[in-house]
Amino acid sequence: MSEIEHLIAQYDLQPHPEGGWYKQSYKSKESIPATALPQRFGGNRVFSTAIYFLLEDGNFSAFHRIKSDECWHFYIGDPLQVFVINQTGDLEIITLGNDVSKGQKFQYVVQATCWFASRPAPGSEYCFVGCTVAPGFEFEDLELADAQLLSALYPRHTSIIKELCR
What we know:
Elements: H1 3-10, E1 14-15, E2 21-27, E3 31-32, E4 45-46, E5 49-56, E6 61-65, E7 69-77, E8 80-85, E9 91-96, E10 107-110, E11 115-120, E12 126-134, E13 143-144, H2 147-153, H3 158-163
Antiparallel strand pairs: 1-2, 2-5, 3-4, 5-12, 6-11, 6-13, 7-10, 7-12, 8-9, 8-11
C-alpha cells in the first residue's frame, strides 16, 4: 500500500468537490447566530471546523472561494502551492512545507472571499495538510470558479486560472 493509499484509508478520506481528498476532523458544538454574522452568511454557523486534506501529484484543488477565513496547516509529505487572488487582484503563491530555509510555511491564512486554488509543488508526490475555518465551513459557502468569468475579472492571471479550474 502506498503512503497515499494508507492516508486515504487511515483517515477515511473522501473525494472533495474542488479536487483532492478530505475528511472533517472537527466541528464545534456551539454556533454563532446569523444575526451576529456578516450578511454574506445565510444562517447560523458553528464557531469553527477543521479538515484533513490530501492532494497527490497530478491533482489540484480548483479555484474557489468561501465566506470565512481558512487557515492551512502543513502536516506531512511534499510542498503544496496555494494560489490566492487577494482583495487587490494580485496573485500570491504561498508554498506550504517544512523547509523554512526555502521560504515554505507551516501555516497560511486565506482571507474570506478571496479566490484560491492549490496543487502539489513541482516534484511533489503528495501533500497532506489541514484546513481550519472560522466561522465554520458549510458547503453552501463554497463557490467554485468559472474559468471564463474569473479570467474576465483578472485577465493578467488567465493562464493559472485556466490551469486550476474544472
